[in-house]
Amino acid sequence: MRAVIVAAAVAFLISLFGTPVAIRVFTALKAGQPIRSIGLASNVGKKGTPTMGGVAFIVATVFAYVAGHIALTTLPERQIAQEGPTMTALVLLGLFVFCGVVGFIDDFLKVRKRNSDGLSAKGKLLGQALVGAGFGIAALYTASTNGETVASEHISFIRDISWLDVGKVGSVIVFVFVITAMSNGVNLTDGLDGLATGVSVLVLGAYALIGYWQYRHWCGDTAYATANDYCYQVRDPLEIAMIAAAAAAACVGFLWWNTSPARIFMGDVGALSLGGLIGGLAVATRTTLLSIIIGGLFVIITVTWVIQIVSFRTTGRRVFRMVPLHHHFELAGWSEVNIVVRFWIVSGVCVAIGLGLFYSDFLAVVG
Q: Whole-model pTM?
């Protein structure tokens, strides 16, 4: 627990005090977010607000992981996976950073062109797929000394589903899909001040709790596994908890400056990185299908966006006034702050249901 607290504290402080530096830097570089003229109240006064703020919480999380890993060296030897970074940390932080790189390229092109056209949709998907495939292969084909890999060859819900064995190749494909879907889900959600940041805090916080719970009931802890009939077959759960807690705390520090009226936007660099990390956490904790519930708001916004696109292209009619979904409610007369807070509540309910299912499964197994 000490390492998790240290990582979270360091991430929060770096993000809280580092984000104003990012605001000054990106403002000086004239890296203002291009705003589309679509008649939304939320767009009024936002022109010129610096973007690419996701760089702040990415840097904060990476430095916090280093601090937390140093704190691990003070723990008993059986609790330390290895002296250097674990493969789990390399996969999770790699997804976080390199999905962010894809987003950074998109943001950079938008700023340079002074419009909202960055990477093409195909270019962005290709970048996400390449990142997902690279780290998916690392997650599936690099085993620890006890043979455990970061990802599994099975589809998982609260743990691996034994009869859903898709093999290594199939698992890499699933890994790519999860990373791509979740990163785009967060990206679609990022449209109002503080919305995606606040929801990400809730989801990442949930994964910090899941990771730590798995660590306390871990098959890799021989003392616990010997004395108990049930344990979680995952790799490096303490590092999972540490990274999730650090990212959640970094987002809290960033939210101080990103909440309405936002002084800085996370940009695609922030949205794609958060989605990549959340997808990686889902796979690493063996809760791939459960992430649909935990990240329920991301899923709702993505599904409604797909419904709108399919409906318009097939019938010429719109189901919603505008997508993503938060803009539908803006056009219905809701204020930006009301939408953000209510969407946070919806996300909190989804997270609570997901955690409840996770814990109820444990109670059902241990009796």
A: 0.94
